[in-house]
């Protein structure tokens, strides 16, 4: 709160020319034009939002003399990672994690629904994988479980977790690109040998579980969905 007051006082005292480039009636956090008579959580001066509804300082605090080296200029469009480039979904997820990390709301981004609101559903699986990897590296496996648990408040059993590039599940580690052998099961009377093209995940029992993989046989152009339990990595 103290920082807010210091910032507000500095903004009020600043010459108009200094703050003018940052003045807008739109909140950069909820993307709405805010009516001063119904400003709600927004802090306004006149018709301009100076603190967004989630607490973001919309006027660069550094130009009014409040040092915040990490302040992020909302006027610069966030460089969306080029979808058309060679970036894999996983790499896109990693880029998003970096973004999320900078904004300190990884718990929010961990929720598939929230990620899905802002990014394509296909990216959600990559984000979740990247967030898990990041959490594990930073805080260990317990943090992953804690985040899984937390996310389950918003993610129910059987919610799809998206496709991941690699999964450790039930004492088995499989990656996209692995050469595998799949035993027959009730849906697939014949054994199948091929390469993993995707790994599908589902939330279940407060964990992200591997449910199935796509396997493409040599010479085929079709991915066959295969149950995780029937798959073993082929001997090299
Ligand atoms: Zn807002």
Index terms:
23% strand, alpha+beta, single chain, 3 domains, SH3 type barrels, six-stranded antiparallel β-sheet, two-stranded antiparallel ribbon
Sum this structure up briefly.
With 236 residues, the protein is an alpha+beta fold. The protein has helices at residues 2-13, 16-19, 89-103, 106-109, 112-118, 121-139, 141-152, and strands at residues 43-45, 48-51, 160-164, 166-169, 172-175, 179-182, 192-204, 207-216, 224-227, 231-233. It folds into three domains: 2-64, no CATH class; 89-152; 160-233, SH3 type barrels (Roll).
Helix content bin: 25-40%
CATH architecture of the largest domain: Roll
- Strand/helix succession: HHEEHHHHHEEEEEEEE
Q: Sheet bearing the most strands, described?
A: 6 strands, antiparallel
Low-confidence stretches: 80-84
Provide the CATH topology of the largest domain. SH3 type barrels
The top-level CATH class of the largest domain is Mainly Beta
Shape type = elongated
Number of helices: 7
Mean pLDDT, to the nearest integer, reads 80
Percent strand equals 15-25%
Q: By helix and strand content, what is the structural category? A: alpha+beta
Distance between the termini: 61 Å
| Cofactors, ions and other ligands in the entry | zinc ion
């Amino acid at each position: 709160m103290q920082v807010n007051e210091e910032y507000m006082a500095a903004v009020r005292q600043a010459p108009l020319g200094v703050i003018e480039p940052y003045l807008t009636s739109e909140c950069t956090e909820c993307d709405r034009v805010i009516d001063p008579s119904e400003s709600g959580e927004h802090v306004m001066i006149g018709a301009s939002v100076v603190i967004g509804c989630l607490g973001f300082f919309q006027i660069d605090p550094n130009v009014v003399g409040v040092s915040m080296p990490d302040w992020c200029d909302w006027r610069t469009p966030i460089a969306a990672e080029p979808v058309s480039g060679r970036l894999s979904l996983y790499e896109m997820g990693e880029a998003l994690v970096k973004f999320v990390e900078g904004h300190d709301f990884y718990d929010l981004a961990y929720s598939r629904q929230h990620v899905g609101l802002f990014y394509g559903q296909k990216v959600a699986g990559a984000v979740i994988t990247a967030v898990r990897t990041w959490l594990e590296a930073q805080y260990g496996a317990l943090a992953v479980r804690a985040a899984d648990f937390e996310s389950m408040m918003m993610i129910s059993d059987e919610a799809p977790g998206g496709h991941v590039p690699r999964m450790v599940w039930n004492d088995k580690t499989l990656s996209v690109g692995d050469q595998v052998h799949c035993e027959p099961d009730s849906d697939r009377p014949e054994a199948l040998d091929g390469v993993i093209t995707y790994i599908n995940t589902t939330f279940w029992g407060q964990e992200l579980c591997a449910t199935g993989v796509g396997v493409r046989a040599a010479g085929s152009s079709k991915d066959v969905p295969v149950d995780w339990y029937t798959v073993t990595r082929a001997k090299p």
